[in-house]
């Protein structure tokens, strides 16, 4: 595996040079913040969810981000339509199964999107990821009640079954494609106090997927970058409101060199 700190710097440089269009079908709560975050890092966001344009829009995109946070039937159909078109075009897709396991609508929709599209990466907390395999996984809203370590072994099996890369985010992020396992230790405690932080991490992975053909390295380097923005923001902010703004600034100000120096990505030799 290449040096991932170096790869992270290369990926960030590529995003800023290429400004890839990232097509988001995401939730109402995070649209503005996600768009600002993508702009700040150097990507070009578009938020398009109408059924009669998603296929046209995704044809221009470097990646498709699907987020089920505020579902309606129309949005589910749009996601499936866009997902099928992106799969046909071999455009990478990242799915954020927000709250999967909490209600049948969320769980069934996530599974349907997975079944009908070629998903490159699925990012969620441990309980969301586990719900995609285990009907008995109970989630408490969108807060994880399973630890990342508990989910690790299941994740490697599930990644192989779904032929995808899974990212389970928490205090330590776990990324696996079923064979390789990486852990990312960047981040800051205040990230949990800003709504949409996870959704924005998903969109960040989308931007990195647009410039990196290996979903595992794209995901790990994206999460290291996003976690590092939390660390930098935490040096300037002591509470959630200012921290949220400082994160946008950090996405803009962190250089590829600073990212290479600050990445905390570790290869895991075990699947436990």
Tell me what you see in this structure.
- The chain is of the alpha/beta class.
- It has one domain: Ribokinase (UDP-N-acetylmuramoyl-L-alanine:D-glutamate ligase), CATH 3.40.1190.20.
- Helices cover 51% and strands 14% of the residues.
- It is built from eleven helices and nine strands.
- The protein has a nine-stranded mixed β-sheet with strand order 2-1-3-4-5-6-7-8-9, with helices on both faces.
- Strand 7 and strand 8 form a beta hairpin.
- It is globular.
- About 3% of the residues have low confidence.
Short description:
The protein is an alpha/beta fold.
Name the features.
272 residues, UDP-N-acetylmuramoyl-L-alanine:D-glutamate ligase, 9-stranded mixed β-sheet, 51% helix, alpha/beta, single chain, 11 helices, 9 strands
